């Protein structure tokens, strides 16, 4: 991909992000409504993606104003971690890798380091030793059957949260965090990843004995279908796990998961929201956020593989980025606050369909930064 084209895409990202930062203040965006981002007071599970986008801008420009913008939301992350711990779950990695870890790595800020370590400890506390897994969600409504199942639930998204634990082990020298991350990755590989290398969205265990029970979906089409964004969480999750452990089975699994994803892509390399509808079906939406996560994940794989093999994934990521920019970006729609259109949040709940999602925007920007060689990997 030509540098000139990448610089054009980067300029689009930076300008729209600058305009948004001026409006958002310390707020944390989630999804667009009529082209304008809504906000989650405590960040929900997505708050880190906005700060991550701002840190990418800081890396690209060296302008301290971006660091200042990224830190405006620190009060919300601090309150969430220390005063509202009951609202946190396995998404502590998403929240604090792209806010606190990014801040510390780029600036050496010691308060950010401590917040990230405390978040890693909170994530480690969710580990269930009998089942060798990290409990994903909390029991939101005691007595409700679905909510009660959360005591023994993992979800594929957690694979992308594990780098917080790997980082904490490297930072502190305490192997506890690393061992928990490896246990989660190994358990996920045996349960939530199917033999054909498609993935369940969630998997249930007996929380007392740790016995594996069954796979279920929540955001996918059906229990036995393959939710496209979940597949990308798995691809990138195992690629990042390989970066930290160099366990060859993790990279092998990432490649097998990637091939399943690639084989089910649409002609323009952007997937349907669930691969049950691969090939397109009237009334069923795409998910550009899955496409963006895939591009960033393929670039992570490319950075870790031998040059010739890695070049395949880099070229694929370049083609995805080009398609997202040309066919799905808001480059010609200045009133749209998101970077990418046609993302799908939670189709079964009819929530956030054909919108911009902050995590789709983030991974699109991360992929561009990686292609330009202008980002230090936070994960």
From TrEMBL:
The answer to whether UniProt assigns keyword Hydrolase to this entry is yes
For this UniProt record, the keywords arranged alphabetically read as follows: Hydrolase
Q: Name one GO molecular function term.
A: hydrolase activity
Q: Which InterPro entries match?
A: 6-hairpin_glycosidase_sf (IPR008928), 6hp_glycosidase-like_sf (IPR012341), Glyco_hydro_88 (IPR010905), UG_Glycosaminoglycan_Hydrolase (IPR052369)
Annotated PANTHER family? HYDROLASE, PUTATIVE (AFU_ORTHOLOGUE AFUA_7G05090)-RELATED (PTHR36845)
Q: Which family does it belong to?
A: Belongs to the glycosyl hydrolase 88 family.
Name under which the protein is recorded: Glycosyl hydrolase
**What lineage is on file?**
Bacteria, Bacillati, Bacillota, Bacilli, Bacillales
């Amino acid at each position: 991909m030509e540098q000139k084209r990448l610089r054009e895409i980067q300029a689009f990202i930076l300008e729209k992000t600058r305009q948004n930062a001026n409006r958002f203040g310390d707020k944390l965006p989630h999804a667009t409504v009529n082209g304008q981002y809504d906000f989650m007071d405590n960040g929900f599970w997505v708050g880190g993606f906005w700060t991550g986008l701002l840190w990418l801008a800081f890396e690209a420009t060296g302008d301290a104003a971006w660091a200042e913008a990224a830190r405006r939301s620190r009060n919300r992350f601090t309150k969430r971690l220390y005063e509202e711990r009951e609202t946190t779950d396995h998404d502590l990695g998403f929240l604090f890798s792209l806010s606190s870890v990014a801040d510390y790595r780029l600036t050496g800020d010691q308060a950010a380091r401590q917040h990230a370590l405390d978040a890693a400890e909170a994530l480690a506390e969710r580990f269930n030793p009998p089942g060798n897994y990290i409990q994903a969600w909390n029991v939101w409504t005691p007595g409700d059957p679905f909510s009660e199942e959360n005591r023994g639930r993992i979800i594929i998204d957690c694979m992308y949260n594990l780098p917080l634990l790997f980082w904490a082990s490297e930072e502190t020298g305490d192997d506890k965090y690393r061992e928990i991350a490896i246990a989660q990755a190994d358990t996920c590989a045996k349960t939530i990843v199917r033999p054909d290398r498609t993935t369940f969205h969630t998997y249930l265990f007996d929380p007392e004995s740790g016995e594996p029970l069954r796979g279920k979906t929540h955001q996918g089409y059906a229990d036995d279908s393959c939710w496209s964004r979940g597949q990308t969480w798995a691809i990138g999750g195992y690629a990042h796990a390989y970066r930290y452990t160099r366990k060859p089975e993790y990279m092998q699994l990432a490649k097998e998961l990637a091939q399943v994803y690639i084989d089910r892509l649409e002609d323009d390399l952007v997937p349907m929201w669930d691969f049950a509808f691969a090939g397109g079906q009237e009334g069923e939406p795409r998910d550009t956020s899955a496409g963006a996560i895939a591009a960033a994940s393929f670039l992570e794989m490319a950075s870790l593989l031998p040059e010739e093999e890695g070049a395949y994934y880099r070229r694929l990521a370049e083609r995805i980025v080009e398609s997202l920019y040309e066919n799905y970006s808001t480059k010609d729609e200045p009133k749209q606050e998101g970077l990418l259109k046609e993302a799908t949040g939670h189709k079964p709940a009819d929530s956030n369909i054909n919108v911009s999602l902050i995590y789709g925007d983030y991974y699109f920007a991360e992929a561009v930064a990686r292609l330009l060689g202008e980002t230090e990997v936070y994960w």
